[in-house]
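Work package 3, deliverable 3.1, input record:
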Amino acid sequence: MGQRQLISSIVLLVIAFSTFLETSKLPIGVPRKPQTGFYPLILAVLLTILSLLLLWQAIKEKKGKRSTGEARWGGLKRIGLALGALFAFAFLFEHLGYVITTFLLIAFLLRAIEPQKWWVVILVAFLCSLISFLVFGLLLNTQLPPGILGI
Amino acid sequence: MDVLDKIGLGLSIALTPANLLFCFVGTVFGTLVGVLPGFGPVGAFSLLLPLTYKMEAASAIIMLAGVYYGAMYGGSTTSILVNIPGESASIVTCLDGYQMARQGRAGPALGISAFGSFIGGTLGVVGLMFLAPILGQAALSFGPPEFFALTFLGLTLVSYLSRGSTIKALIMAVLGLLAGSIGMDPISGVPRFTHGSTTLMDGVGLVPVAIGMFGVAEVLENIESTTSISIFKTKIKGLLPNFKDWKDSFWPILRGTVLGFFVGMLPGPSGTIGSFASYAMEKKFSRYPEKFGTGVIEGVAGPETANNAATTGAFIPLLSLGIPISGTTAILLGVLMIHGVQPGPLFIGKYPEIFWGVVTSMYVGNAMLLVLNLPLIGIWVKVLKIPYFLLFPFIFLFCLFGVYTLNNNLIEVFIMLIFGIIGFLMRKTGFEGAPFLMALVLGPVMESSLRQSLLISHGSPTIFFTRPISALLVIVGLACLITSLFPMFRRKREDLSKKIGDVS
């Protein structure tokens, strides 16, 4: 965990530094009359202290024995594909409409993550978009983007 | 209004056909979620959230509360039959439950865990009924210093009791407080860290963050490595425990109820801690402690009772103080706020129909779970065989859909996805989501109470130590911080948290 802890603590220090920068644009006030920036400033100070403690721990651990139990980074391709599909869904949702984007999302996930037969992919994606549209769009009257199909 | 009138009011709400249906849906869905490993109540909330937007507040909480305690029932099934805990609160059930299944006693193990859960859950509700109004009444005298101290204690305790490094948990809490400070300043109304975004003017929404960090991140973690589950093949017969089983389980169930209920009120993974503490206690009280781990029924009865009692205990700080003590209760608070209901000291007096409706629905829900679950165990075992590749696209879809339909705002969907990535990376680097989520909710309360306290005291922080309740709360919080940061105490705490395992 040493290497990752080192990276985490550096990222956290960057966040703390950015908070200091952002807070400096706000009125801070004094303890007797705290203003908008007072509370985030305290949090930025706390975050800096805790991040430095984590950094110190990471350096100490790196010098010593490498700890066991590292989490695996396998399956990154699957995660990348899934995230890509989710972001694409969000981008296309209002343009293509609920029914089409849902069909495409489910079909892509079923085919790309752990590939299924095409007929399973199409059948499940079709049923899923249809049933969820019937339940949420028609039965519960939820406002869904109509998109190019106009429904 | 005396207690009987209040129960009558509650029953008149809980027993309406619509609320009975919502309670039923919640408990059955909760059990299903509990059965499925790697899918917790927070993920389940995200799936049901779109349904709750159009419901009455009471109905929404009745359904989601059903998911919460239903998951505790379901979690034991996989622990006993597969040796994989469906929920972290059922980890300890694996020790004796699975051994009982191997000896051909899966039926009594499942039976006593269902009865224990029922008794723990129902007696816990009695405690909730009496204690929540008292605490709510006492909290009416709380001023800003007490509320600051309470939020401070809540956050330090959740960090102290979390798995692994306290420093990491505290960092998550501070980041959550920072995220909570985005939006309009709660006192002056000046926008802060919004960069001109109108969505961020109202702050970072709890629902997108929770669904991203727990729902999306959980699925990402699961699809990273797909593993198949092998179910221990045994005939499940004789679900009703015999006289000896009842005799052996009587005191563990009673002790588990009391212990679980009080542990439930503490911040952190109270269901998990309650079940571990109950197991340790039963081992201590037992005449044959050496047999624990070989399939003794007390090792199933006590912890399973305790984790259900803990879920009812967790409602006390939420409903009477407006303080959520875990990721799960933080979402319940968010749901109440979506419906324009603000929990806190005035909650029970202002919304008696919600409080008593939810409380009485818990009796109904626990009874439903007992009646439904024993005959349905065969179905739950079959559910375990559903391949994950068929489940996860639907979970993703509901996460996307749930957040979008909240305000029909795509920016919130992107916020959810970003927090999904953050949540996944956090899991990989040993950071936890629960302190972040709690801090996000408590942040505005903490800031306003801190600033008001300083205004009252003309800038002197001694105000937190001169008032008895706030002094007590701050000192306990500081003690937790100090003991967790000093190596001597830290090692002991880390040993304990390793045993406790994952945070609910």
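Residues 2-63 of chain A form one domain.
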